[in-house]
Design goal:
By secondary structure, this protein is mostly beta strands. Strands 1-28-27-26 form a 4-stranded antiparallel beta sheet, with no helix packed on it. A 4-stranded antiparallel beta sheet has the order 2-3-4-5, with no helix packed on it. The protein has a 4-stranded antiparallel beta sheet with strand order 6-7-8-9, with no helix packed on it. Strand 16 and strand 17 form a beta hairpin. The longest helix is centred in the N-terminal third of the chain and has 22 residues.
Length: 354
């Protein structure tokens, strides 16, 4: 009888462990083939999402990525980033001209009010924005005639290859202003706003990659002014993407374009004080493992996408193991639903689901 109980307990333990392992496994989804790196994917709940690519295409799913509908194909447009406020209102940013071949679209931002069925250029006041690489949305709670409501603030930055600009909306995307950030940096890749005033941006110091250092900027006034909180000491470097699993702990990927094959160490930057200070953390020694996307479930458990593979850590970046995230995983988005269930999506050459 005791042996049976022990055996049953062992089987139950193994089953639970297998289930937990399965929950943290990325699965490749069936999507339209794409030759290179696709750049962004976003979801408003576990089932409803969109992704974009450099062929000017926007895809939409209503069933968690099992099936995808092509909502738009606009030749000459290189879509770089996408974000949705809700199931209807969304925005898609383009990288702009004079960087990738066959790109002719000079409009930096498109908007939709019908869930992606139709898209229109977004008008804005301020200096011309050449291109965008990232969009972040902050919903601010307030009391509206005795009821809890939200004000929606949207921030978009770019671009790779210079110049550096930010676009901001404080009314859910109805109106926008632009601002040059070329005095603070020369390239912008990602932005994370904690509130409507406080946040960080991933940047680079120089448009000439041979002279560029990775750079992280911080704002306390909604993007009006920025301070340098991290700069790498090596040439050929930029930052790329950011993930903050908590308000204090955050991670940023650092890219190295050094042509010397002996320069192998890949790094990320980590903060434990909300972005005020940063330390470098080693990822892997592999000159070909250029980093792209990053996403953390909590302050210990996270993922990084590189040119060749993915990496996973369960101890806050102290150690890493290779995993299958496909090639050139550029964006990793981790979500939690109202019940605390974790789910995620990532995109590169292919799309994966956690």
């Amino acid at each position: 009888m005791v042996k049976i109980i022990i055996k049953t307990a062992i089987l139950l333990f193994a089953t639970v462990n297998a289930a937990l392992a399965q929950e943290n496994t990325w699965k490749k989804l069936t999507t339209e083939p794409y030759a290179g790196k696709q750049d962004d994917i976003t979801f408003i709940d576990e089932n409803t999402g969109w992704y974009v690519n450099g062929y000017g295409k926007i895809f939409h799913t209503k069933d968690g990525g099992a099936n995808w509908e092509k909502q738009l194909e606009q030749k000459g447009t290189f879509f770089r980033t996408i974000a949705f406020v809700d199931k209807n209102v969304g925005f898609a940013g383009t990288v702009g001209t004079d960087y990738f071949p066959n790109v002719t679209d000079t409009i930096p931002l498109y908007g939709t009010k019908d869930g992606g069925k139709s898209w229109k250029p977004v008008t804005y006041k301020g200096p011309y924005v050449k291109g965008l690489c990232a969009i972040d949305i902050v919903k601010e709670q307030y009391i509206n005639h005795g009821k809890i409501d939200y004000k929606t603030h949207i921030y978009a930055v770019g671009r790779v290859g210079t110049p550096a600009n930010i676009m901001i909306s404080h009314d859910g995307g109805e109106t926008w202003i632009s601002q040059s950030m070329n005095t603070d940096c020369k390239m912008l890749f990602d932005i994370k706003m904690f509130t409507k005033n406080e946040g960080i941006a991933c940047a680079a110091t120089n448009e000439d990659i041979t002279q560029s250092n990775a750079l992280i900027l911080k704002t306390s006034d909604g993007g009006k002014t920025w301070e340098k909180v991290y700069q790498s000491s090596r040439p050929y470097e930029t930052t790329w993407k950011v993930s903050f699993p908590t308000k204090d702990v955050g991670f940023v990927t650092i890219q190295s374009y050094n042509p010397d094959p002996n320069v192998k160490q890949q790094r990320i930057a980590k903060t434990i004080d909300g972005g005020k200070t940063w330390t470098e953390v080693n990822l892997t020694e592999d000159a070909t493992a250029r980093q792209f996307g990053i996403g953390f479930i909590d302050e210990n458990h996270g993922f990084v996408g590189t040119m060749n593979s993915g990496f996973e850590t369960k101890d806050g970046g102290q150690t890493w193991q290779k995993i299958d995230l496909g090639r050139a995983c550029n964006k990793i988005r981790i979500y939690k639903d109202e019940k605390g269930k974790v789910y995620g999506y990532s995109i590169g050459v292919n799309v994966y689901k956690l």
